[in-house]
Amino acid sequence: MKRVLTGDRPTGKLHLGHFVGSLKNRVKLQNEYDTFILVADVQALTDNFDQTGKIKDNLLNVIIDNLSVGIDPKKVTFYVQSLVPETAELTIYLMNFISFNKVLRNPTVKDEIAQKRDKFKGNPPFGFVAYPINQAADILTPRADIVPVGFDQAPMIENTNTIIKKINSLYGQIFNEVTPVFGDIGRLIGTDGSAKMSKSLGNTIYLSDTEEEVRSKVMKMYTDPNRVKSTDPGRVEGNPVFVYHDAFNSDTEEVKDLKERYVKGTVSDVEVKTKLVAAINKFLDPIRERRAYYERNIDEVYDILSAGTKRAREEGKKTLEILKEAMKINYNLFTN
Ligand code: ATP
Ligand code: MG
């Protein structure tokens, strides 16, 4: 059975962007692939070294967020990155198979460094710049074939394949290249209309938001800035309210009708938003129910993590064995 690896940084609760970008595909792929989902706490440290408490606080949240959308713990292996030291060991080896300049050219890392200029005082830690190599090690820990992610992760997959190709060219065909699977919406815009819904931008609707929180966020949402009155013809394309209607409203007839009336100027923003509140709450209801179950049965979550982490370590050990044997550094100096 082919394998999937993906995961989230425990830097906050998961939101609708995570759902359309990656979680939705995880739910689908879990039926066809042996799926591994990690909580990337080591990676989160690279830009949260000064807020480590936040990482611990979000660890269980992120697992419960995954379970709440319908990921089945009987099918999926969940694990904590820092409890699989094999990934850290692997990272050190992988550093040799990608050039310094290539790592520096990763466009997502460059964007993130620009965004975090104040935090990094213009001089990011080496660990942050190198995190795509650590992510390649995550992918190779269970030797995954498929990685369901949002668009911002495309350069990370490319870096991983650079590393895999280099290893294979040096030591023989030992690892398969990996394929990213992007969501139908690879980058969901924020409630403020900015390019990406993101924990760090405060423009999110969380999977764990209450009905009231959803209402208040949607009613404040950015729409078509040129539309002053509800009788003005409005723009549907790129309008966050309609992007969300398309993504989360299962009543396609209603969405079609709202769009037609919006373009003609015969529907108010308030009506469009009120219907969106109802649609998102309907979408979130079964998610809320599963969340409530796991919150009541938190011991189950610990058991899922502990069994999954054990399995991930076994797989990580196997990857190291394969690589070390191929590199001829699998000497048993002290065993015979
Ligand atoms: P941060 O804001 O702290 O950078 P994040 O919101 O980007 O965090 P991650 O844990 O880095 O969250 O991302 C987890 C997964 O969700 C990745 O595959 C990422 O591509 C995807 N993702 C995150 N935000 C979005 C979004 N707005 N649209 C689509 N996919 C997203
Ligand atoms: Mg991110």
Topology, pairings included?
Layout (H helix, E strand, L loop, with lengths): L2 E6 L7 H14 L4 E6 L1 H8 L3 H17 L7 E5 L4 H10 L5 H5 L2 H9 L1 H4 L5 H4 L1 H10 L5 E4 L4 H18 L7 E4 L28 H9 L20 H9 L3 H13 L4 H28 L1 H29 L10
Parallel strand pairs: 1-2, 2-3, 4-5
Helix pairs in contact: 2-3, 3-14, 4-9, 4-15, 9-10, 11-14, 12-14
The protein binds adenosine-5'-triphosphate and magnesium ion.
Summed up, the helix count is 15
Elements, N to C (H/E) = EHEHHEHHHHHHEHEHHHHH
Uncertain regions: pLDDT < 50 for 5+ in a row? Answer: none
Termini distance?
36 Å
- Give the full name of the CATH homologous superfamily of the largest domain: HUPs
List the ligand species. Answer: adenosine-5'-triphosphate, magnesium ion
User: So what's the overall shape?
Assistant: globular
Structural class: mainly alpha
Enumerate the strands of the largest sheet in spatial order, edge to edge or round the barrel.
1-2-3
The number of strands is 5
If you average the pLDDT, what whole number results?
96
